[in-house]
């Protein structure tokens, strides 16, 4: 009976080790504190996603429409909620930490381009950001 318990304990430990090995990204060689996006490249060429103003998006945008906005993130409203502004108006935006440029700080004065999807609902309208790019 004692051997069976020991065998089960060893099998459980081996199973945990295998699960951890499966969970690691391929090519991983050791510990890292770098954000996941730091190792990923990004596309920098032309895009068919339309460049729009906040006013155009609010007036004519469709739910789930992809768009690009250029302007400034003017306030952090808690969690992943921010307010974005261009020359035509303001819109609430949702930006996850990993969607900011890796290793760079974005100030309220910095011009940025947001790539994302318009979320137009009956009670809430916002722009869900997939990527923030710093503009010169």
From TrEMBL:
Output this protein's name.
Uncharacterized protein
Q: Which Pfam families match?
A: BOF (PF04076)
State the Gene3D superfamilies in the record: Bacterial OB-fold
**At the top level of its lineage, which domain of life is listed?**
Bacteria
Per the UniProt entry, what species is this protein from, by scientific name? Comamonas serinivorans
Which interval of the chain is the signal sequence?
Answer: 1-23
NCBIfam families named in the record: stress_OB_fold (NF033674)
Sorted alphabetically, which keywords does the UniProt record give?
Signal
């Amino acid at each position: 009976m004692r051997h069976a318990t020991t065998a089960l304990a060893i099998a459980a430990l081996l199973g945990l080790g295998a699960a951890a090995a499966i969970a690691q990204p391929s090519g991983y060689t050791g510990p890292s504190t770098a954000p996941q996006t730091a190792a990923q490249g990004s596309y920098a060429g032309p895009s068919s996603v339309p460049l729009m103003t906040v006013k155009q998006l609010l007036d004519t945008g469709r739910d789930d429409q992809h768009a690009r906005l250029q302007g400034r993130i003017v306030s952090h409203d808690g969690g992943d909620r921010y307010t974005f502004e261009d020359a035509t108006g303001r819109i609430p935006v949702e930006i996850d930490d990993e969607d900011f440029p890796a290793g760079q700080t974005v100030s309220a004065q910095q011009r940025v381009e947001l790539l994302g999807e318009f979320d137009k609902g009956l009670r809430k309208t916002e722009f869900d950001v997939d990527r923030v790019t710093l503009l010169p």
